[in-house]
Amino acid sequence: MERLIDEIVQNVQTGQRTLIAISGHGAAGKSTLAERLRERLGDVNLLHTDPYIIDSQLRKQTILTYEQNGITHHYKMTACHPAAHHLLSLERDVRMTREGIDFYTIDVPYLERTWIDPEKPITIIEGMSVAFLDLSSFDQSIYLYTDGETEFKRRSQRDIQERGMELDYLRSSHAERRLQYELFMHPYRHRFQTIVNTSKDEIQIEKTAHEER
User: Where is the Phosphoribulokinase/uridine kinase domain (predicted)?
Assistant: First the structure.
Protein backbone atom coordinates (compact mmCIF):
# COMPACT_ATOMS: atom_id res chain seq x y z
CA MET A 1 0.00 0.00 0.00
CA GLU A 2 3.00 2.30 0.46
CA ARG A 3 3.39 2.69 -3.30
CA LEU A 4 -0.25 3.77 -3.59
CA ILE A 5 0.05 6.21 -0.71
CA ASP A 6 3.29 7.63 -2.10
CA GLU A 7 1.62 8.30 -5.46
CA ILE A 8 -1.39 10.02 -3.89
CA VAL A 9 0.80 12.19 -1.66
CA GLN A 10 3.08 13.15 -4.56
CA ASN A 11 0.08 14.37 -6.55
CA VAL A 12 -1.15 16.70 -3.80
CA GLN A 13 -0.54 20.33 -4.75
CA THR A 14 0.95 22.06 -1.70
CA GLY A 15 -1.04 25.05 -0.49
CA GLN A 16 -4.04 24.44 -2.73
CA ARG A 17 -7.47 23.19 -1.67
CA THR A 18 -7.46 19.50 -2.51
CA LEU A 19 -10.30 16.96 -2.39
CA ILE A 20 -9.46 13.25 -2.41
CA ALA A 21 -12.23 10.70 -3.06
CA ILE A 22 -11.93 7.12 -1.77
CA SER A 23 -14.64 4.55 -2.47
CA GLY A 24 -15.37 0.85 -2.85
CA HIS A 25 -17.53 -1.84 -1.29
CA GLY A 26 -17.55 -2.78 2.38
CA ALA A 27 -14.27 -4.20 3.74
CA ALA A 28 -12.33 -3.24 0.61
CA GLY A 29 -9.83 -1.16 2.60
CA LYS A 30 -11.27 2.36 2.24
CA SER A 31 -11.00 3.38 5.89
CA THR A 32 -7.51 1.92 6.20
CA LEU A 33 -6.30 3.90 3.20
CA ALA A 34 -7.98 7.09 4.46
CA GLU A 35 -6.34 6.77 7.89
CA ARG A 36 -2.93 6.01 6.41
CA LEU A 37 -3.23 9.06 4.16
CA ARG A 38 -4.21 11.23 7.10
CA GLU A 39 -1.08 10.06 8.94
CA ARG A 40 1.09 11.00 5.96
CA LEU A 41 -0.60 14.26 5.03
CA GLY A 42 -0.98 15.60 8.55
CA ASP A 43 -3.81 17.85 9.70
CA VAL A 44 -6.53 17.21 7.09
CA ASN A 45 -10.33 17.04 7.04
CA LEU A 46 -11.77 13.52 6.89
CA LEU A 47 -15.42 13.08 5.91
CA HIS A 48 -16.86 9.56 6.22
CA THR A 49 -19.96 9.09 4.07
CA ASP A 50 -21.74 6.28 5.98
CA PRO A 51 -24.21 8.84 7.46
CA TYR A 52 -25.40 9.55 3.90
CA ILE A 53 -26.63 5.96 3.50
CA ILE A 54 -30.39 5.59 3.89
CA ASP A 55 -31.44 4.00 7.18
CA SER A 56 -31.30 0.20 7.14
CA GLN A 57 -34.90 -0.12 8.33
CA LEU A 58 -36.09 1.64 5.19
CA ARG A 59 -33.79 -0.37 2.94
CA LYS A 60 -35.14 -3.60 4.43
CA GLN A 61 -38.62 -2.58 3.26
CA THR A 62 -37.38 -1.83 -0.26
CA ILE A 63 -37.24 -5.05 -2.28
CA LEU A 64 -35.28 -4.99 -5.53
CA THR A 65 -35.82 -7.28 -8.50
CA TYR A 66 -32.83 -8.08 -10.69
CA GLU A 67 -31.53 -10.88 -12.90
CA GLN A 68 -28.32 -12.83 -13.27
CA ASN A 69 -27.81 -15.63 -15.78
CA GLY A 70 -31.52 -15.77 -16.48
CA ILE A 71 -32.43 -16.15 -12.79
CA THR A 72 -34.64 -13.52 -11.17
CA HIS A 73 -33.67 -12.40 -7.69
CA HIS A 74 -35.75 -10.53 -5.09
CA TYR A 75 -33.87 -9.06 -2.15
CA LYS A 76 -33.77 -5.99 0.07
CA MET A 77 -31.86 -2.96 -1.16
CA THR A 78 -28.27 -2.93 0.04
CA ALA A 79 -25.88 0.01 0.14
CA CYS A 80 -24.46 -1.16 -3.19
CA HIS A 81 -27.42 0.45 -4.97
CA PRO A 82 -27.26 4.15 -5.91
CA ALA A 83 -30.77 4.79 -4.57
CA ALA A 84 -29.58 3.78 -1.08
CA HIS A 85 -27.69 7.06 -0.65
CA HIS A 86 -28.59 10.69 0.06
CA LEU A 87 -26.52 11.84 -2.90
CA LEU A 88 -27.95 15.36 -3.13
CA SER A 89 -26.92 16.05 0.47
CA LEU A 90 -23.46 14.66 -0.12
CA GLU A 91 -23.07 16.61 -3.35
CA ARG A 92 -23.99 19.78 -1.45
CA ASP A 93 -21.38 19.09 1.22
CA VAL A 94 -18.70 18.29 -1.36
CA ARG A 95 -19.48 21.58 -3.09
CA MET A 96 -19.29 23.46 0.21
CA THR A 97 -15.91 21.87 0.89
CA ARG A 98 -14.66 22.83 -2.54
CA GLU A 99 -15.83 26.42 -2.04
CA GLY A 100 -14.21 26.69 1.40
CA ILE A 101 -17.39 26.80 3.47
CA ASP A 102 -17.12 25.33 6.95
CA PHE A 103 -19.74 22.96 8.38
CA TYR A 104 -20.32 20.05 10.75
CA THR A 105 -20.69 16.56 9.30
CA ILE A 106 -23.92 14.66 10.00
CA ASP A 107 -24.16 13.55 13.63
CA VAL A 108 -25.29 9.91 13.95
CA PRO A 109 -25.20 7.43 16.89
CA TYR A 110 -22.34 5.40 15.42
CA LEU A 111 -20.18 8.32 14.28
CA GLU A 112 -19.60 11.59 16.08
CA ARG A 113 -19.84 14.74 13.99
CA THR A 114 -16.65 16.47 12.92
CA TRP A 115 -15.88 20.01 11.82
CA ILE A 116 -14.89 20.50 8.19
CA ASP A 117 -12.39 23.32 8.50
CA PRO A 118 -11.71 25.42 5.37
CA GLU A 119 -8.33 26.37 6.84
CA LYS A 120 -7.22 22.79 6.23
CA PRO A 121 -6.40 22.65 2.50
CA ILE A 122 -6.81 18.86 2.13
CA THR A 123 -10.09 16.97 2.60
CA ILE A 124 -10.45 13.20 2.24
CA ILE A 125 -14.01 12.04 1.51
CA GLU A 126 -14.33 8.29 2.04
CA GLY A 127 -17.15 5.77 1.71
CA MET A 128 -19.44 3.80 -0.57
CA SER A 129 -21.58 6.84 -1.39
CA VAL A 130 -18.68 8.49 -3.21
CA ALA A 131 -18.90 5.89 -5.99
CA PHE A 132 -22.13 7.42 -7.27
CA LEU A 133 -21.03 11.08 -7.31
CA ASP A 134 -19.84 13.25 -10.16
CA LEU A 135 -16.09 12.93 -9.62
CA SER A 136 -15.21 16.14 -11.45
CA SER A 137 -15.23 17.97 -8.10
CA PHE A 138 -12.31 15.86 -6.83
CA ASP A 139 -8.61 16.29 -7.51
CA GLN A 140 -7.86 12.61 -6.97
CA SER A 141 -10.16 9.59 -6.88
CA ILE A 142 -9.32 6.06 -5.75
CA TYR A 143 -11.54 2.97 -5.93
CA LEU A 144 -10.79 -0.22 -3.97
CA TYR A 145 -12.40 -3.65 -4.31
CA THR A 146 -11.81 -7.33 -3.59
CA ASP A 147 -13.10 -10.65 -4.83
CA GLY A 148 -16.15 -12.09 -3.08
CA GLU A 149 -14.22 -14.56 -0.95
CA THR A 150 -11.93 -11.91 0.49
CA GLU A 151 -14.85 -9.57 1.16
CA PHE A 152 -16.71 -12.26 3.10
CA LYS A 153 -13.62 -13.15 5.13
CA ARG A 154 -13.01 -9.53 6.12
CA ARG A 155 -16.65 -8.74 6.78
CA SER A 156 -17.11 -11.84 8.93
CA GLN A 157 -14.17 -10.80 11.11
CA ARG A 158 -15.31 -7.18 11.38
CA ASP A 159 -19.09 -7.54 11.57
CA ILE A 160 -19.11 -10.43 14.05
CA GLN A 161 -16.42 -9.09 16.37
CA GLU A 162 -17.20 -5.39 16.21
CA ARG A 163 -20.91 -5.28 15.33
CA GLY A 164 -22.25 -8.46 16.93
CA MET A 165 -23.68 -9.88 13.71
CA GLU A 166 -24.57 -13.59 13.56
CA LEU A 167 -22.38 -15.66 11.23
CA ASP A 168 -25.35 -17.55 9.73
CA TYR A 169 -27.08 -14.28 8.84
CA LEU A 170 -23.89 -12.86 7.39
CA ARG A 171 -23.35 -15.95 5.26
CA SER A 172 -26.93 -16.03 3.96
CA SER A 173 -26.93 -12.35 3.03
CA HIS A 174 -23.48 -12.23 1.50
CA ALA A 175 -24.38 -13.84 -1.84
CA GLU A 176 -27.16 -11.33 -2.58
CA ARG A 177 -25.13 -8.41 -1.27
CA ARG A 178 -22.24 -9.39 -3.54
CA LEU A 179 -24.54 -9.86 -6.53
CA GLN A 180 -26.01 -6.38 -6.01
CA TYR A 181 -22.46 -5.06 -5.78
CA GLU A 182 -21.47 -6.66 -9.10
CA LEU A 183 -24.61 -5.38 -10.84
CA PHE A 184 -25.07 -1.91 -9.38
CA MET A 185 -21.77 -0.62 -8.00
CA HIS A 186 -18.78 -2.36 -9.55
CA PRO A 187 -19.31 -0.76 -13.01
CA TYR A 188 -18.75 2.68 -11.46
CA ARG A 189 -15.10 1.88 -10.71
CA HIS A 190 -14.05 2.88 -14.24
CA ARG A 191 -14.86 6.52 -13.49
CA PHE A 192 -12.08 6.70 -10.89
CA GLN A 193 -8.53 7.78 -11.68
CA THR A 194 -7.02 4.92 -9.68
CA ILE A 195 -8.42 1.39 -9.29
CA VAL A 196 -6.95 -0.96 -6.70
CA ASN A 197 -7.67 -4.67 -6.20
CA THR A 198 -6.99 -5.62 -2.56
CA SER A 199 -8.00 -9.30 -2.81
CA LYS A 200 -6.19 -11.81 -0.56
CA ASP A 201 -4.52 -8.93 1.31
CA GLU A 202 -2.44 -8.02 -1.71
CA ILE A 203 -2.35 -4.60 -3.37
CA GLN A 204 -2.70 -4.69 -7.15
CA ILE A 205 -2.99 -1.28 -8.81
CA GLU A 206 -4.98 -1.91 -11.99
CA LYS A 207 -5.22 1.69 -13.15
CA THR A 208 -3.44 4.87 -12.09
CA ALA A 209 -3.99 8.55 -12.66
CA HIS A 210 -0.85 8.58 -14.83
CA GLU A 211 -2.61 6.42 -17.42
CA GLU A 212 -5.20 9.15 -18.04
CA ARG A 213 -2.62 11.80 -18.89
Answer: 19-197
CATH number of domain containing 159: 3.40.50.300
3-class secondary structure, 78: coil
For the whole prediction, is pTM greater than 0.70?
Answer: yes
Domains held by the chain: number:
1
Residues 35-66 have pLDDT tens digits of: 999 999 999 999 999 999 999 999 999 999 99
Domain hosting 131: range is 2-212
Q: How much is the CA Rg of the chain, to the nearest whole Å? A: 17
